[in-house]
Design goal:
By secondary structure, this protein is mostly helical. The longest helix is centred in the last third of the chain and has 17 residues, at about 90-105. α4 (about 90-105) crosses α5 (about 110-120). The chain has 5 helices and 3 strands. The N and C termini lie far apart (about 65 Å). The mean pLDDT is about 80. The chain is about 50% helix and about 10% strand. The protein has 2 domains: about 1-30, no CATH class; about 30-120, Rossmann fold (3-Layer(aba) Sandwich). A 3-stranded parallel sheet has the order 1-2-3.
């Protein structure tokens, strides 16, 4: 029992150090995507996550699940930096398409889904 706890204690103390050291030394790959999946920015275009853009590469894809407002502060800033973006409306439309296909067995018209969402959100 004592050796098991001793081994566990050693593991707890050392396991976090390896990824930390790798990140510090730049041995991890660069992030290729940023997904904002919180409610910050919901219905308030001036709110949103604080992002440190200093490590962002030009290939970064930024996705925001917020669909109201349709273009969040995060997406506006990402586009200003020339990054590829994916809005909450696009994500919701894809979810609706997958659900429609699952329940009906047929492919939906994605243009109709986008139009319906934009009409509902008044954008």
């Amino acid at each position: 029992m004592v050796s098991a706890l001793g081994a566990l204690n050693g593991s707890i103390l050392s396991n976090a150090r390896v990824p930390f050291a790798m990140a510090r030394d730049g041995l991890f790959f660069k992030p290729f995507g940023l997904v904002h999946a919180t409610t910050r920015g919901w219905r308030d275009p001036d709110d949103g996550p604080e992002i440190d853009w200093s490590e962002a590469s030009a290939e970064l894809v930024v996705a925001d699940v917020i669909f109201n407002p349709p273009e969040s502060r995060l997406l506006v800033e990402s586009k200003r930096r020339g990054l590829k973006t994916l809005s909450g409306i696009e994500m919701m439309a894809n979810q609706v398409s997958l659900a429609y296909r699952f329940w009906t067995g047929s492919d939906p018209d994605s243009d109709v889904i986008h139009e319906a969402l934009e009409e509902y959100l008044e954008v």
